[in-house]
Amino acid sequence: MKGRKELLVGSVVLLAILTAVFGTFWLQGRRFGSTETEVHVLMRDVGQLSVGNTVTFRGVSIGRVGDITVEDSGVAVRIQLLLDGDWILDDDAVVVLAPASMFGDWQAEIVTRSRFPQYDYSEVPPDVELVEGVRVLGGYVLPDLSRLTAVADEVAQNVASLTDRFDQAFGQETADQITRAITNMEEFTATLRRLADEQSVQFLGIADDVQSATSEIASVLATARGSLERIDALLASGDLDSILVNTKIITAELSGVSGDISAASQSLSGTLTLADSTFLSLNRITTRLENGEGSLGRLISDTLLASRVERLVEELNLLMEDLRANPQKYVRLSIF
Amino acid sequence: MNGFVLTPVEYVGRWSINRVRSLGKAGYLTTGALRALRNVEIWGPRLLTQMVSVGVASVPIAVFIAVFTGIVLALQASYTLTGAVPMYLVGSMVGKSMITELGPVLTGLALAGRVGASTAAEVGTMRVTEQIDALETLAYDPLAYLVVPRVLAGVLMFPVVIVLASAVGVLTGWAASLTLLDMSSAEFVRGLRLFFVPFDVQFAVIKSLSFGLIVTSVGCFYGFHAKGGAGGVGVAATRAVVVSSVLILVLDAFWAVVLL
Amino acid sequence: MSILLKDVHRAFGQNHVLRGLDLEVLDGETLSIIGFSGAGKSVILKHMVGLLRPDSGDVIVDGRNVSELDVGELNELRRDIGYVFQFAALFDSMNIAENVAMGLRRMPDMYDDEIMARVSECLALVDLEGTEDRYPSELSGGMVKRAGLARAIATKPKYLLYDEPTTGLDPVTVTVIDRLIVRMKEELGVTGVVITHDIASAYRISDRIVMLHEGRIRTSGTVDVIKESRDPLLRSFLEGRPELAERAS
Ligand SMILES: Nc1ncnc2c1ncn2[C@@H]1O[C@H](COP(=O)(O)OP(=O)(O)OP(=O)(O)O)[C@@H](O)[C@H]1O
Ligand SMILES: [Mg+2]
Predict the structure, then answer these.
(1) CA-CA distance, C39 to C217, in Å (whole number)?
(2) Claim: this prediction has a pTM higher than 0.90
(3) What is the DSSP-derived secondary structure letter of residue C66?
(4) pLDDT tens digits, residue range A286-319?
(5) Does B147 fall in a domain?
(6) Which candidate from B35, B129, B139 shows the least CB-CB separation from C89?
């Protein structure tokens, strides 16, 4: 009788313990009994990477992030990667940290430096503390949405100071026109930022929020693009009178254009194309400004400001390129 | 006149006095039970029996609830996730909510009914039929004999039951995703692992421990202070279930604030 | 050593049950307490084992003031006291043998076979041989009562407190129990306090009888003194005549 009870309690308790322990291991993606290769990465920051995130190699999950610690010196972070099985990594292997999906989880991807030469990888200092048998790699953190917005913000501000000069040089209406373009730009930035801020979207509202956020971006971008194209054209014509005449037409068309485009750009990729072309327009403006083309361009050609804007736009373009290649890395939503 | 003015005030006064008094009683019971932990020779032999009745006997109902929760979670998740959101998130939602939230809380509530009521009824019956007095005259500390093994069994066995229930819930959610949602195992497991951190399990276990503590001690408390006959026992059982259910939800929020 | 209650007051809310009760139980005697239903007889007994504490006054048992003892000391004292509950208060989750063995398991140096031997012995004393494996719910009211008695005497206590040990038993069993009570006193020197409504039985077993009324001892004395008493209330109780009590009050 008593023995039976003990057996019963014992087996239930054991079952639960085994479930908890093996379940945890399994959910972490650990394998039992096989060997593990430990690799360390030293970098300045780790983005949103956290313990337990997957490590991929050529797109295949091969391990997980074991531990993340700040080095004693305080200037670097050491990431421990635990790879399943035996791995001998390429001599120029580096690690790229990037979002793994749209939902806030990150991953560490082992790549070769030559595959993505454009990144500014952190170098492993020669005096680094070494653990025997453990490779230490350099790495690069892909920027996420918040960096994108920060840069766009800066562009907007610089373009705003350009407008001030416009204002000095021309009548109120021209200035209004350009101001509106700037506002659109700022709005776009704000939307991007809001999207980034609203990463903890409520459980139930995910789908809705994604949908509305997407179309919001779409419409803002459409307006922005429309305006920018007009400015572009204005700058090209370089005729003060026609600028003033065209202002009315531009204003009228703006809303129509934005409506059309937003309807056509429901999907995220559509949005991204739009964003891209917006920045292209901006880029063109800047180029012209820099070359002093058109009367406006000449009037306000201030090499310092123009080059600053250009540099920013270049950076933006780089980000956009990446954004187009890996859209899911930039839209980050976390449910829980 | 006087009565009109004073009655609400008096009412509040009496209410406060009663609250303080039951807090006092609870504190007395708690310190008594802690002191009674010394008397291993009294509660030790009773622990196993209580582990069976609190834990092992609760596994079927917990599993039953988990089976349906798992299925509903999978369907609900797929219903919520439309359009741009990938289906593998069904796995994430089933896993995360089953392990950290629904497993512990739903099982806790079910056990509040099962264990809380039976504890209060058993102890309450012993109180009103003077069996507790009889224990005392036989030199048994009733706290050591009745309360300690029950509460310990609750603390030890709730996590056990909840771990099993959560595992079953995840498995049935998985099965439902395969059969009802046309997902692949690989997809589900990907989602399942995506947001999993080992802390989820610790979090669930900590919660479960506290639920076990609350349900059994509230049951013992109301049983211990049961008055009158069968009616009094009924009142004790009802109160135990209501109070421990409420406390489970409060504790759940508490842990979420403290640990997340 | 004896039992002494000095100026004990005890109220339950508005219900002032004991109102300055003085009572002494001498060493080795059997004292019967009689009194109307609800007078507070069971309450007195519960004070003697510390199940209830007095609002004021002292309860001294075996030279120790019960309300000043800590848990350990109280348990120590309780090992020397057997308590027969009015409604038996058997543990319904255990069979009769385990019920009777409960007190014995708290005794130091008792082995299982000794305990079981003692259980059978006690059950035989109350005519309950062969009921070891049955549960309280499977026994008649009288059998349950006797099992409660067996549980109380199992530990061979120095003091035995019987709360209506013979109420509800058939006349033959009443005699068996009465003899048992007398035997406990004579063979083991037990000090006994018996609450009873059975006057004939009280005469048979008691050295002294006290009557409780309105929270105090109304009358006390040896069996002969009680039998001769002229107190109308006592007479009304002994003879079962309510009209005498009305005249007395
Ligand atoms: N735990 C308690 N709570 C409240 N009142 C109580 C309690 N115990 C006893 N009383 C009250 O004390 C009074 C005396 O009760 P007690 O049980 O001592 O009577 P009794 O003399 O034993 O009567 P009976 O002969 O019917 O057994 C009763 O009025 C009862 O209501
Ligand atoms: Mg009584």
Answers:
(1) 11
(2) no
(3) G
(4) 555 555 554 444 444 444 554 555 566 666 666 6
(5) yes
(6) B129
Domain contains B3: no
- All residue ranges of chain A with pLDDT < 70 are 1-2, 30-34, 101-104, 143-336
User: How many domains is chain B partitioned into structurally?
Assistant: 1
Neighbouring residues of A18: CB distance < 8 A, sequence distance ≥ 6: none
Give the chains touching A; criterion: ≥3 Cβ pairs < 8 Å.
Answer: B
Q: Which protein residues are within 6 Å of ligand 1, measured from CB?
A: C 12, 15, 17, 35, 37-43, 86
In a domain, C222, yes or no: yes
pLDDT confidence of residue A335: 35
CB contact under 8 A, B52 and A268: no
Whose structure tokens read 């006092």?
B24
pLDDT of residue C241: 84
Q: Extract the tokens encoding C150.
A: 């067996």
Q: Average the pLDDT over each of A25-29, C15-19, C37-41 and give the range with the smallest value.
A: A25-29
What number is the average pLDDT over the span B216-221?
95
B195 vs A105: CB contact, 8 Å cut-off? yes
Inter-chain CB proximity B81 and A15 less than 8 Å? no
Q: Pick from B35, B125, B139: which is nearest to C75 by CB?
A: B139
Residues with C-beta atoms within 5 A of ion ligand 2: C 42, 86
Domain carrying residue C19: 1-80+159-164+190-249
Nearest to A276 by CA among A232, A316, A312, A320: A320
**Which CATH number is C16's domain given?**
3.40.50.300
Residues of B whose CB is below 8 A from A6: 48
Q: Which ligand is nearest to the CA of C14?
A: 1
Residue C213, strand partner residues: C216
Q: Which of C85, C112, C164, C193 to mutate to test the interface with B (most CBs of B within 10 A)?
A: C85
Q: How far is CA C149 from the centre of its chain?
A: 10
Number of domains in chain C: 1
Chains B–C, number of C-beta pairs less than 8 Å apart: 51
Instruction: Decide if C133 is inside a domain.
Output: no
Interface touch B133/C51, C-beta < 8 Å: yes
Query: Is ipTM beyond 0.90?
Result: yes
Mean pLDDT to the nearest integer, C220-231: 91
pLDDT at A301: 46
Query: What are the tens digits of pLDDT across the range A106-116?
Result: 888 898 888 87
Q: In chain B, which residue's Cα lies nearest the Cα of A203?
A: B80
Report pLDDT digits (tens) over C152-187.
999 999 999 999 999 888 999 899 889 989 988 998
What's the pLDDT at C82?
94
Atom of ligand 1 nearest to the CA of C197: 25
CA dist list (Å): A83 to A66, A76, B145, B195, C48: 9, 22, 53, 19, 74
Atom 16 of ligand 1, residue of closest alpha carbon: C40
Contact A42/A71 with Cβ under 8 angstroms? yes
For a substitution probing ligand 1, which of C19, C32, C34, C42 has the most ligand atoms within 8 Å of its CB?
Answer: C42
- State the residue range of the domain holding B101: 13-259
Give the number of whichever ligand sits closest to the CA of residue C212: 1
Q: Say how many Å lie between the CA of residue C163 and the centre of ligand 2.
A: 7
B144, two tokens = 């050591």
Q: Which residue, by CA, sits nearest to atom 3 of ligand 1?
A: C12
- The protein residue with its alpha carbon nearest to ligand 1, atom 24, reads C37
As given in the structure block, the two tokens for residue B185 are 């195992």
Chains C and B touch (3+ CB pairs under 8 A): yes
Q: pLDDT tens digit string along C232-241?
A: 888 888 888 8
